[in-house]
Amino acid sequence: MDIQTFISLVLIGLLAGTLSGFIGIGGGVIMVPAIIYVLGVSQHEAQGISITTMLLPIGILAFYNYYKGGQVTNEFIAYSAVIAVTFIIGGYFGSKISLKLNPQLVKLIFGILMLYIGFKMIINGWGYFRK
Q1: What range defines the domain where residue 43 resides?
Q2: Tally of structural domains, the chain
């Protein structure tokens, strides 16, 4: 794993953890698109990395299916470990920030973020139907 990849993984983990603590999201909603667009891996690989990161809280059986399907390599398990550690740090700081803000503002930020991510994923996936 090179330094640029490591830094990208740290930033993804901090972002996902911070947003998880801040507005209650982070796992697949933040990590999967970030892993796809920052690291350039496939949708299934990103899902496998995300599931590996959340292995204990989500479930070992989902991880096993992605691993068995070849979507999670040993390198991706290392990626997941870096994201998981920084996710914890981000979750701590995100929750501290969120608790200092009005819940309506947090709800607005959550909605805007979901709209942006949804729009980006729809536009990216639209090419499937253009073939």
Answers
A1: 3-130
A2: 1
Q: Which are the contacts of 78, defined by CB distance < 8 A and separation ≥ 6?
A: 1
**CB burial string 73-92: b at 16+ within 10 A, e below:** eeebbbbbebbbbbbeebbe
Measure the CA dihedral 112/117/118/119, to 10°. Answer: 90
- Which pTM does this prediction carry? 0.63
Cβ contact 84:53 at 8 Å: yes
pLDDT, tens only, 63-116: 788 888 988 888 888 998 998 899 889 888 988 888 898 888 888 887 898 899
Give the pair of three-digit tokens for residue 32: 């999967």
Query: Which residue would you say has higher pLDDT here, 17 or 100?
Result: 100
